[in-house]
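Schema walk-through. Below, the input block comes first and the output block second. Nothing else is stored per chain. Lengths vary across the set, and this one has 399 residues.
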Amino acid sequence: MCVKVVCVGGGPAGLYLAILLKRQNPSHEIAVHERNPEGSTYGWGVTYWRALLDRLHTCDPESARAIEAGSVRWTQGVAHVRGQVARQPGDAGHGIGRHRLLEILAERARDLGVRLEFEDEITPGDLPDADLVVAADGIHSALRTQHAGHFGTEATEGRNHYVWLGTTRVFDSFTFAFAETGHGWVWCYGYPYDDGHSTCVIECAPDTLTGLGLDAMDEAGQLDLLEKLFAGILDGHPLVGGSSAAWPAFRTLTNRTWHHGNLVLLGDAAHTTHYSIGAGTTLALEDAMCLADALREHTLLPDALTAYERRRRAELVSAQSAARLSAQWYENLPRYIGLPPHRMFALLGQRHSPLLPYVPPQLYYGLDKAAGRLEVLRRFKRWLGPRAARALHARSWTP
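--- output ---
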């Protein structure tokens, strides 16, 4: 059966859904409407892990090959704190420029026959006639806001503030740097995304932001101060800003339901997870995969949308728990920053653990090292961790 689908929003989620639906049935009429001009995008690079790349190769090998070819790779993490450096091996990570990722997906969508309409803003009062309208228009989704009461949208603001920057310093690893100031700590997450650039996300507590005057500076002043604080990792390279000097607090967005009639939420319009776990793009693409599967497996649209929502909610529990715990780890940085750097870095790697906030850091480190040597402790940790995560997740959703 031929269907007409309109995706509102030309980010990774909307473009990838269009690709998957066209591959399922070339006779489907698929259009993507993006309010911004083609080639204009916010952000620098995005990060993802090997498991996503494997799924992309299964879903659409052609775009996956292009994404892999356009990405850079690293296999370890490095932390700089108090003049010392700690390194840890890790899973293979990948970075790609957001602009390049969207370029690849748009080109693939066009080749498959998807109609792409740029500089074309779809408003809630002027929805195109379609069998399915996909709200892939981000955290500030106008289509979701129009029916906010039905969707049950809630946004919870975190404590810390952040700014998303770029640099011409190409890091060879996923890099963490912690800079101590007279007003508290400022820290950076950095990772490469092409041969000439890296992303730098810089974060600090509210008192540090105001104490340093970052909230009152223009962008040039902010960059100058931050370059001095992180001179040790920038190696003479500049930080590159965007169009805003604002330092927002991250907003974790949830919705009670993800569909309303023939309108369905996708990606950040449906849910957000804290940037410190590096999963935003991955989760958006996985939303698209899940929705495409549901539309293929169910003849009736209500059944398909219900199945999509049920499956993705279950799949997201782990990522949402990890994101909350990760954000809380940084909000409680003073609890860990006094440890020897290699121990602090080890616990940074364990920040997704629901047990860590309740165990003294030195004791947790010792138990974790012991668990690495004793099978019985490894089994106990594997058994307890998921149960604690589910219990904390359920408690966080209890009115």
